[in-house]
Design a protein that fits this description.
alpha+beta, 7-stranded antiparallel sheet, 5-stranded antiparallel sheet, 8 helices, binds adenosine-5'-triphosphate, binds magnesium ion
């Protein structure tokens, strides 16, 4: 399977995100194509990670299948033959699609990142450590870094076009999308995370926090869209080495982060783009971690021709 930095399919291009290329399929569907690009410390690397795009697409597909009957979602198919069956013009682009493409219902996207945190990490830990709050709300005292939050905390953010997403209060979210939609998005977020966190934990992955997006489909229904509980939209930790009271290694990106940290300490990188070139050993180790994340979450090997 080839590694991919960007795609060029004969379909109308709606946009390119940091990781995904988005195409229109007719009026009411989209094709999401996940590339093998990777970022760390907010910088996109020059190298691609073999299989990463397929891992992200197929982990999302796994969750959408698990969520059947729990919440409505956008996935139509992530199977290459089925996609080519729907869009025969893509037949000559089979190698590009293989594993990493998903055809979905097109929606009008709500401008909210629905973040849910089951463990206290990253920026949430920093805020709590400094002020005892999360998104401005007081939390109980004495919580540890990486400690479990019970119940999980819903902390929405705006979907910024550029730069960093900004945390907002639930009151601000209600003002933006209305009371009823805000309630629905929070309920769906909790339902999906509760199911996913438990299943993944039983298989050795802690999903410490994650981010969902929702949109309204042609029938006016609110559905779960985008990617779901992947290592890119979530913090994945290995359950077997989990220990609260300190930061946890990232299940997928730790080899890359360790390498970049060492380059920084050695004075060979200032932390901004362009990043240093990655040795094959780091690319390899990272690819293996993504495949292992797939194997643990789904319980089977990712097989792509
Ligand atoms: N069913 C859908 N209908 C319409 N738009 C969708 C649908 N599913 C996902 N999208 C949009 O497709 C885009 C996916 O691109 P991508 O994830 O690469 O970029 P991003 O979200 O802007 O960046 P990042 O995920 O790195 O923050 C997002 O803007 C998302 O809102
Ligand atoms: Mg995204």
């Amino acid at each position: 399977m080839t590694s991919m930095i960007a795609s060029d399919l004969p379909l109308p291009l709606i946009g390119r995100g940091k990781v995904r290329d988005i195409y229109a399929v007719g009026e009411d569907r989209v094709l999401l194509l996940t590339t093998d690009r990777i970022s760390a410390f907010d910088v996109v690397m020059g190298e691609t990670i073999p299989m990463k795009g397929a891992v992200l697409t197929q982990i999302s597909a796994f969750w959408f299948n698990e969520l059947e009957g729990v919440v409505p979602h956008h996935m139509i198919s992530a199977d290459t033959d089925a996609i080519i069956g729907e869009v025969p013009a893509l037949d000559v682009h089979r190698a590009t699609l293989e594993g990493r493409a998903m055809v979905c219902k097109r929606t009008r996207v709500f401008p909210i990142e629905c973040v849910i945190r089951g463990y206290l990490a990253g920026s949430a830990w920093k805020e709590y450590d400094a002020q005892g709050t999360l998104a401005g709300e007081k939390l109980q005292p004495g919580l540890l870094e990486s400690g479990k939050l019970e119940p999980a905390i819903f902390s929405p953010a705006t979907k910024a076009e550029t730069g960093h997403d900004e945390n907002i209060t639930i009151a601000q979210m209600r003002q933006s999308v209305g009371e009823e939609v805000a309630y629905t998005l929070e309920s769906m977020t909790r339902a999906v995370y509760t199911l996913g966190e438990k299943l993944a934990r039983d298989r050795g992955i802690i999903i410490a926090d994650t981010k969902f997006e929702f949109g309204r489909d042609a029938d006016g229904r609110i559905i779960l869209i985008d990617e779901v509980m992947t290592p890119d939209s979530s913090r994945f930790w290995a359950a077997d080495v989990y220990k609260p009271g300190r930061p946890q290694p990232s299940f997928d990106k730790q080899p890359l982060r360790d390498y970049l940290d060492a380059e920084r300490r050695a004075g060979r990188w200032n932390g901004d783009a362009p990043p240093p070139p990655l040795p094959d050993s780091v690319v390899d180790a990272t690819s293996k971690r993504y495949l292992e994340a797939y194997r643990r979450v789904t319980g089977s090997e990712l097989k792509i021709d």
